[in-house]
From TrEMBL:
Domain of life: Bacteria
Official protein name in the record: Epoxide hydrolase
Xref: PANTHER family: AB HYDROLASE SUPERFAMILY PROTEIN YCLE, MONOACYLGLYCEROL LIPASE
SUPFAM superfamilies linked to this entry: alpha/beta-Hydrolases
Molecular function terms from GO: hydrolase activity
Gene3D superfamilies: alpha/beta hydrolase (3.40.50.1820)
UniProt organism field: Xenorhabdus khoisanae
Coiled-coil zones: none
Gene Ontology annotations for the cellular component aspect, listed alphabetically: membrane
Keyword Hydrolase in record: yes
AB hydrolase-1 domain span: 32-272
UniProt-listed Pfam families: Abhydrolase_6
Lineage: Bacteria, Pseudomonadati, Pseudomonadota, Gammaproteobacteria, Enterobacterales
Keyword annotations: Hydrolase
Length: 283
């Protein structure tokens, strides 16, 4: 099904595991794909979509955002155990890109979306550039995963299947930034999410079968931009700063002052010009 509203196309694309809801600004510009975080939705990228299709950038970019299986307006997965993992999410996204006929794409992934982007470094030759935010590239195993994060209550919620009303509000507020705008759709997105997405994704992330994302980040030739909030309460900034990246954009990790886990939402006026500068390298 396809619909158009405010010059944006809305698709429902059937993939192996789920029907995926996609928004697409269309046109012939460079395709840019935005991937949301755990228990969020594509609408979290409103400021980036409006910015990249705005007056002075109009026509340069074809912006796409989607809801992961079990999130937003996408369906729950038909085979949750198989579908709800970072590599499976990556393969679902690749399937969507193929069905849309997209042969070249730059990806921005936030939090879980960044981990999915890291998976795509190995799985998606069509991806020519990757920007991640709130996403520590970690090696395999629970101890290695722990190196990339700070111990906090949020990490327990990240893999919890059944949320209470208090959990829903807490997760939405903390992930978007305690000082960020807390619009109702953010809470609704957490409430809508299939709880098995959190449980199964987190179990797979900690398993011995997970992908070595640290190795990918340190060896991939694809340009990798990293833009974090300096106040992010969940990630270990020093760990991320200290990795030996092969092709780190501008040879630095950007840590934006006075913002938390979602700088693109909390401070789009600071974040968006950095994103646009990165994207301009692929024109």
């Amino acid at each position: 099904m396809t619909a158009t509203h405010d010059d944006i196309n809305y698709y429902d694309i059937q993939t192996r595991y789920a029907g995926i809801s996609v928004i697409d600004t269309g046109g012939n510009g460079l395709p840019v794909l935005l991937i949301h975080g755990n228990s969020s939705c594509k609408e979290i990228f409103r400021h980036q979509i409006n910015y990249l299709k705005g007056n002075y950038l109009k026509g340069k970019y074809r912006v796409l955002a989607l809801d992961l299986p079990g999130h937003g307006a996408s369906s729950n997965a038909s085979e949750p155990r198989q579908a709800y993992s970072m590599p499976s999410y990556a393969r679902t996204i690749i399937e969507v890109l193929e069905k849309l006929g997209i042969n070249r794409v730059v990806v921005f992934g936030w939090s879980l979306g960044g981990h999915i982007g890291l998976e795509m470094l190995a799985l998606c030759p069509k991806m020519v550039g990757l920007m991640i935010c709130g996403t520590p590239p970690v090696a395999i195993g629970a101890d290695n995963v722990a190196l990339g994060f700070k111990p906090c209550e949020h990490m327990g919620l990240a893999g919890k299947a059944d949320f209470t009303e208090e959990d829903i509000k807490h997760f939405a507020y903390e992930t978007c930034g305690v000082n960020a705008p807390h619009e109702s759709f953010l809470i609704e997105a957490v409430a809508r999410t299939d709880g098995l997405t959190r449980q199964y994704m987190f179990e797979a992330f900690l398993s011995s079968q997970a992908t070595d994302q640290k190795l990918l980040a340190e060896t991939s030739e694809i340009p990798l931009a990293i833009v974090n909030g300096a106040g992010d309460p969940f990630i270990n900034i020093d760990y991320i700063n200290g990795l030996n990246y092969r092709n780190l954009w501008k040879n630095q990790v950007f840590n934006l002052a006075n913002v938390d886990h979602a700088p693109f939402w909390e401070a789009p006026e600071v974040f968006n010009p950095i994103l646009a500068e990165f994207l301009n390298d692929f024109q």
